[in-house]
Automatic annotation (TrEMBL):
Originating organism: Allochromatium tepidum
Domain of life (superkingdom): Bacteria
InterPro entries given in the database record: N-reg_PII, N-reg_PII-like_a/b, N-reg_PII/ATP_PRibTrfase_C
Name under which the protein is recorded: Transcriptional regulator
Length: 101
């Protein structure tokens, strides 16, 4: 198995931000993303995801180092102060690196 390392950005945040974040992520160079509904408990309490506008989403982006840094820096500067958001970055092995920039 031949694989190449890329970055996986995982963003968990308020679902109300979905459209804006998708525009940001695409503008900053990501080739794609995956969005799923998310539930859980954290610093801001229990998020049940019972209603669309009060739920959380999980956005996953696999991309190169430069794109990952650009997205992470932008989200921290633009959203961290005013929205519930966590972001973590990990390395992943991909088999088709051309798909992830």
């Amino acid at each position: 198995m031949n694989s190449t390392t890329r970055k996986l950005l995982t963003v968990i945040t308020e679902s109300a931000l979905e459209r804006t974040l998708v525009e940001d992520i695409e503008r900053l160079g990501a080739h794609g993303y995956t969005i799923t509904d998310a539930r859980g408990k954290g610093h801001r309490g229990l998020r049940s995801a019972a209603w669309d506008e009060s739920g959380n989403i999980r956005i996953e982006v696999v991309c190169d180092d430069v794109t990952a840094r650009a997205i992470a820096d932008h989200l921290q500067a633009r959203y961290y102060e005013h929205y519930g958001m966590i972001l973590f970055v990990s390395e992943v092995a991909v088999l088709r690196p051309e798909k992830f920039g």
